[in-house]
Design brief:
The protein is an alpha/beta fold and about 230 residues long. It contains nine helices and five strands; from the N terminus they run αβαβαβαβαβαααα. It has two domains: about 20-150, 3-Layer(aba) Sandwich (Rossmann fold); about 155-225, Helicase, Ruva Protein, domain 3 (Orthogonal Bundle). The protein has a five-stranded parallel beta sheet with strand order 2-3-4-1-5, sandwiched between helices. β3 (about 90-95), α4 (about 105-115) and β4 form a beta-alpha-beta unit.
Amino acid sequence: MSGEPNQFVFDWGARPALGAEDFLIGESNAAAVALVDRWPDWSMSSALVVGPPQSGKSHLAHVWELRSDATMVVAQELSEDHVPELMHRRALVVEDIDRGIGSEQALFHLLNLAREQRTSVLLTSRAPAGELDVALPDLRSRLRALAVTAIGAPDPTLLSAVLVKLLADRQIAVAPPIVHFMAREVDRSIAAAVRLVEAIDRLSLATRRPITRALAGEALMRLRDGNSDQTDD
């Protein structure tokens, strides 16, 4: 118990830095970074980046969008009307094809046009092409034939760097030993790191306590217990 009353916490969120210089590279995402760096010298017209939630797929897609002057569209919003519009540029990003595709026929046309016109399409997904629920046989076959690059779980060094960046996005400075403790104890995923930093920030604000190893440990316990939004009297 902190001995201090709970405080109302207004979580305004954090504005993430999404520039190329802000993308942190480790063994788990090096192949995906190399894919972006190789453009426009891809062996195929289209490529698929697969990775778990909050693994950096959207950040990397944003970097490629800026580099290639691509149009970006969420797969759920795809329609036949997008086909001529989106192919005016030489590059296209289609995000989150695992969450549903607005028009499978439109995506099939876009992949065909990219191959015929020597333009490029970068797709992102949480699941491999073979695991997607795609009704159109031609599209299903085309997606399974794409060049695929996977983003895996972060190694401890990358996870520490990600924690520092997430804290910096919230304008929080934490001593290195506390960061190392967080990286050692948190589940080895970017999503878990995001949840931990959010929980630490909320707990520190609500209890008006500095961020120490003890507070970080308390936030971890709250996350594991599923009650990170609560504070003690």
